[in-house]
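Q: Hi! First time doing this. I have a protein sequence and I read that you can turn it into a structure. Is that right? Here it is:
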Amino acid sequence: MEFSVKAPILILTHEFAPTKGGIATFTEEMARAAAKLGRIVEVWAPQSNGNHDSDFPFTIRRLDLKGTQDLSCQARLAMEMIRERRRLRNAIVYLCEPGPVLAMCYLQFFKTFKPGKLIITFHGSEIKTFAANPGKRMAVNALIKRADRISTPSEFTHGLLKQNFPVAKRKTFLTPGALRSNFEEIEARRSRPSKKVHILTVGRLHPRKGQAFILHALAQLPRQLRRQVTFWVVGTGNKHGYEDELRELADKTDFGVTFFGDVSNEQLEELYARADIFSMTSVNFRKSVEGFGLVYLEAAAHGLPIVAHRIGGVAEAVSHGENGILVEPGNQTELTAAFGQLIQDRDLREKMGRNGKKWARRNTWLQSADLLFNRWDITIDPSLDEAERAIELCP
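A: Yes, that's right. Below is the predicted 3D structure, encoded as structure tokens:
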């Protein structure tokens, strides 16, 4: 006898806590929101040492994955999906980043393997990567056709997806990023006796994040303004020798530059509290784009005015003239002028900071999770015996 239930949600990811980054945060918050909405949620994530999985309000299933999204990780995840295919047939399967999307591409053509409902989120860069490879393009296009819903974190990413995979047009929904669910209300910023203006950037050290543009822009400030500036760099990574390049540039400056590397959440909160301006000047790098940028919302919520490039989905994360200044990529003169304006005008910094606190809270994860998950019901396979049904419904 068939019976209808709220389907469990299985979220498949190669990026999850304690890994930091936009996709890991996106995945965690969508899982938290779905659980808060009363759904049964299980996250499949890579192994991690010293994690605190019991702290999450949902089940975490740690798999033997490196989390690199390479072919071996894709194959291992695909094998796990094959082993658990009966569960997947009676669940909402959510692929929230590129690795699981590619793993599912291998399985979609087998009739015995079909998720109950399939939802996919595209973040930006992977769209160009998939579209550039004929084989991947064909497989991803077929997977999109099979998907029940698609989501993107920004209108920019939605446009990029429609341009490269038109079949996604009528099934794509906007699920914008929001503040972390455990983000605490920030007290009014305290007046500091220091005459220095601290400029903070947070992100992996990669050419796409554009930290070098900030260094070049600050170096072009008039000497009296350079003497007021310190530049704080949070993040690690030396792909393409980028950290080496940044350190060489920093050595040539006549203002303070500090590389903090990776920091704890407590240390990052302290840096946000002490900073005066936040900046991340992302650029398109090869096939890599900035689809949204959760870090901009976090900086805004801390009351920091923002200087950024008007590129990708950044204009949906920063409101130009309200809580920050957006500059066209490549216009180094305008970028220097934006810093100069904020460095000299404390009242403008404070006004943009106040605006940013309101701006950062305009979206919620609950809204996004409700849109994707709270409208589906599927029928449990009647061929399962009672024990198997219990497993299906209670991960």
